[in-house]
Write a structure and sequence with these properties.
The protein is α+β, with helices and mostly antiparallel strands. The chain has helices at about 5-10, 20-30, 50-55, 60-65, 85-90, 95-100, 115-125, 145-155, and strands spanning about 35-40, 45-50, 70, 75-80, 130, 140-145.
Amino acid sequence: MSSTVSQIMDADPQSVGPEESVETVVQRMHDHELPGLPVVDEDDILIGIVTESDLLMFDEQEDLDPPAHVQIMGGVIYLGSVKHWEERIRKSVASTVEEIMTTEPITVSPDADAHDAGHLISEHGHNRLPVVDDEGRLVGVVTRVDVLEALLEDR
């Protein structure tokens, strides 16, 4: 019989609030050797997640250069979407978790089985998933290693 997520998850995960500083997030991730932290409100409702990729600016200069554009009569017309560029600029000057977090993260229910969690992790390319109850409250975190260990035990 397959293990449920509630049986294999970390039921006491580290988390941060949206008002905390980016420096606090970096320090907590470092202190606890974590690649990311769930972001919760004052009622422990999951509102986002902050990961290493939210904090690191890969190809920083390329991402901060505006997209291709033309200037006509004093105005600027962008030749493609500016959404990615605007997001990278916003994150590059962020000072709080709320400004840098990814909203609406992929989550899993504590009642889901390990196979379902494994599919979500694999499908979305994540290493860990927040576990939330029916009200959206953070109740744990399940990792790729947790799932692999459970699947091996099921064999």
